[in-house]
Structure formats: C-alpha cells, structure tokens
Amino acid sequence: MSIQQQLERAERLCEQRGVRFTPTRRHVFSLLAGQKGAVSAYELLDRLRELEPNAKPPTVYRALDFLLAQGFVHKVESLNAFLFCDHFAEHHPMQLLICTQCGDVIELHDQAINRAFEHQAEQHGFAITSQSIEAHGRCRRCRSETADS
C-alpha cells in the first residue's frame, strides 16, 4: 500500500474516532510510513524540519504520542525508536525481531505468543497494562552475508 493510501486510511480512522489529524501529525506519519525499519525521534525531527523549519523536539514527541495512541506506530523500547505499523486499523498483538547488524525490525503478530505471555502473567497474578516483546539477533540477510564471507 502506498504512503498516500496509508495516509488516507489514517485520516478516515481519525475522523471516525473524532480526533484531529493535524498537518504536523500527517507529516510525521508520512515520514514514518516511508521509513524502512525503526527511526529515532531526533532522526524524525531532522526530516520534519525539511517540511516545517521551526519544528522542535516537543513537536515531534507530541505527534509521536498521538500516533502511538492511535496505533499507527509502535515504540521499539530497546532502541528508543519508532516503527510504522501497516496493520493500524486493527488491534493486534505485536512482537519485534530486531537485527543487531543492519537494524532491520520485523513485526510479528502471533496470537499464540500473546496468549502464552498473558497466561504466564495471570499465573503470577500480574495484570499487563502495556506490552512490548522484543528479540535481538541477526536477520536472514545478515546471517547469509556472514556465511558467504
């Protein structure tokens, strides 16, 4: 799906939810949608300044908070970075595979992992309010490049 199609989908959702999709939020959304992998807030700020020269860190953080709340992006906690979510129209479990060599981030949506994790939490009397499952390693491409050398 193109960035424009993703943007139109997000606009419709915001309208349905009764929330404002401001120009700055649209810009940050588009920047993330065009990004392969995770990106830090300061990298986003540098790119946003090309569109909004007066943008400051709080501008990006407020936009990111909104995009997170709407489910349009995920926070990659261990990298302190953000990842665009192609599946933002639906609530879904999320697990991340993060390549320590190239930085690629693969988003998984495995209900079985999610159920097992929730079950373990319940077994320990723990109520999950927020969840981030991240695994670090090397992706297929980086592993094959190492094997080829």
TrEMBL record:
CDD domains listed in its UniProt record: Fur_like
Co-factor requirement: Mn(2+); Fe(2+); Zn(2+)
Any single GO BP term: regulation of secondary metabolite biosynthetic process
Cofactor binding notes: Binds 1 Mn(2+) or Fe(2+) ion per subunit.
Keyword DNA-binding attributed: yes
A Pfam family this chain is assigned to: FUR
GO cellular component, one term: cytosol
Location of the protein in the cell: Cytoplasm
Coiled-coil regions listed in the entry: none
Residues that, per the record, bind Zn(2+): C99, C102, C139, C142
Predominant location category: cytoplasm
Subunit description: Homodimer.
Similarity section: Belongs to the Fur family.
UniProt name for this protein: Ferric uptake regulation protein
Species classification: Bacteria, Pseudomonadati, Pseudomonadota, Gammaproteobacteria, Aeromonadales
Gene assigned in the entry: fur
